[in-house]
Write a structure and sequence with these properties.
This protein has 397 residues and is of the alpha/beta class. The protein has a 6-stranded parallel sheet with strand order 3-2-1-4-5-6, sandwiched between helices. Strand 10 and strand 11 form a beta hairpin. The protein folds into 2 domains: 253 residues, Crotonobetainyl-coa:carnitine coa-transferase, domain 1 (Rossmann fold), CATH 3.40.50.10540; 83 residues, formyl-coa transferase, domain 3 (2-Layer Sandwich), CATH 3.30.1540.
Length: 397
């Protein structure tokens, strides 16, 4: 994939990103993928700690989360850095930040003052507990939000401690909701001319995807617990062992279950009163899982997968990155693309999503290699000033 892609649905939208680590920067990544020009203000010298994250000799995570962005060095703890931030924010459409509530105010960047200077400004504020409430001032990380939002308690097996999902889901959910709020605010601004504040709390972002967890308790008195790889009373839907690996099969709908029974050579199971209905299968979930796995253990993953495809039964292998990169469907949809990176060379990474038919997003440029490398260019284009011409690229803001 080329390292420059024209346009995008947010072409012409300017974003200033003040955040660091994951939540704020991922929101900026999403906006940038859709065509917005994202200027990231980084601490001179050190930059965003994400520059050091990831496996391998050279950190890789930064190459994804900072793609498409411009790096401007600004020490927000200094009067000069704050003045530079205010000047850029005055010309921006969206400001993204994920500091603890009160930090912007201490840095002379209070949202009320920024909006007075730029009434159309939309401010996305991502924090652990939100901008209000008794916990607002607490430090909050994504993992803590996952715990408070109900996620961690139900992930894993019942005889073990709660498990982590394996990715920073609390941070990325909050970032995604922050982006969603920004897009809604842009639409409103197109009619009113006035921006607003988007308050995206990490714990509430997790809470939003917890399905019926709250009414199940408040109405039915049921508390969800850890159930491992299966969905309670949803059967058959589980990871089943095969001769040479595992396969996830989801055949809990009546008609799909009947097709699974045909594939297994056991069509009579679909008529058995113990398994004929959704409720009955849920009541006999464990024994039904044993029946399915007794069949899958006789075959290879490839054989079971082929049978599921032939009988239109949803099934899928457990992919890792290597599997994804060689899968023809990923390739056909450009779910993974290659970006020409100045540090790593051609670097495969996830593509832009979601896909728009008429104004698709794209990765216009690789992640900034150096802290503040784009300071002069942005000052000239945004502020019409060459004030940054003499600045050290990794020095003072």
């Amino acid at each position: 994939m080329a390292d420059t892609v024209a346009g995008g649905p947010l072409a012409g939208i300017r974003v200033v990103e003040l955040g660091q680590l994951i939540a704020g920067p991922f929101c900026g990544q999403l906006l940038g993928d859709m065509g917005a020009e994202v200027v990231k203000l980084e601490q001179p010298g050190t930059g965003d700690p994400m520059r050091q994250w990831g496996q391998g000799t050279l950190p890789t995570w930064w190459r994804v989360i900072a793609r498409g962005k411009y790096s401007v060095a600004a020490d927000l703890r200094s009067a000069e850095g704050q003045a530079l931030a205010r000047a850029l924010i005055a010309r921006a459409d969206i400001l993204v930040e994920n500091f603890r509530p009160g930090t912007l105010e201490r840095w002379n960047l209070a949202p009320a003052e920024l909006r007075a200077q730029n009434p159309g400004l939309i401010i996305v504020r991502v924090s652990g507990y939100g901008q209000t409430g008794p916990y607002a001032s607490r430090a909050g990380f994504g993992g803590i939000a996952e715990a408070m939002g109900g996620w961690r308690k139900i992930v894993g097996f019942p005889d073990r401690a709660p498990a982590r999902m394996g990715v920073s889901i609390g941070d990325t959910l909050a970032a995604t909701y922050g982006c969603l709020g920004a897009l809604a605010a842009l639409h409103r601004r197109s009619r009113s001319g006035v921006g607003q504040i988007v308050d995206a709390a990490l714990y509430e972002s997790v809470l939003q995807v917890m399905e019926g967890l709250v009414p199940e308790w408040s109405v039915a008195g049921h508390k969800r617990v850890r159930t491992g790889s299966k969905l309670p009373r949803i059967a058959p839907s589980n990871v089943y062992r095969c001769r040479d690996g595992e396969l996830l099969i989801g055949a809990n709908q009546d008609s799909v279950f009947a097709r699974l029974c045909e594939a297994m050579g056991r069509p009579e199971l679909a008529r058995d009163p113990r398994y004929a209905t959704h409720v009955a299968r849920g009541e006999h979930q464990d024994e039904l899982d044993r029946l399915v796995e007794a069949w899958t253990l006789q075959h290879s993953v490839a054989e079971v997968e082929a049978a599921m495809i032939a009988h239109s039964v949803p099934a899928g292998r457990m992919y890792d990155a290597e599997d994804m990169m060689r899968d023809p469907h990923f390739q056909a949809r450009e779910a993974i693309v290659s970006v020409e990176d100045p540090v790593l060379g051609p670097t495969p990474m996830q593509g832009v999503f979601p896909k728009l038919s008429d104004t698709p997003g794209g990765i216009r440029r690789p992640a900034p290699r150096e802290v503040g490398q784009d300071t002069e260019e942005i000052l000239e284009r945004w502020l019409g000033s060459a004030a940054g011409a003499g600045r050290r690229r990794d020095g003072d803001a």
